[in-house]
Design goal:
Helix content is 67%, strand content 0%. The protein is an all-alpha fold.
């Protein structure tokens, strides 16, 4: 899809500078900014509209994900009072 935008010169200069700082083209930079914005909107709307049951299901999915099931348990010394309060 092709979209043409009329930007203020200062906005255009800022976009060009930010894309150059990342070492990518302006088109690629704009695409990533738009995609990130849409993803953030979807996540924000989920947290605003989620029911308690949906929240619990998502939490259980996270808890049972491979990232958590493969993690080693914390050692007792990692959570004892002396390790937390070092002074």
């Amino acid at each position: 899809m092709t979209i043409q935008l009329q930007l203020k010169p200062e906005v255009e200069a800022q976009l060009i500078a930010q894309a150059a700082a990342k070492g990518i083209s302006v088109e690629t930079y704009l695409e990533s900014v738009i995609e990130n914005s849409l993803v953030n909107q979807e996540q924000a709307s989920f947290y605003r509209t989620v029911t308690e049951q949906e929240w619990n299901l998502e939490l259980m999915d996270l808890i049972n994900s491979p990232a958590f099931t493969g993690a080693p348990p914390l050692a007792d010394t990692a959570v004892d009072r002396e390790s937390i309060y070092t002074r």
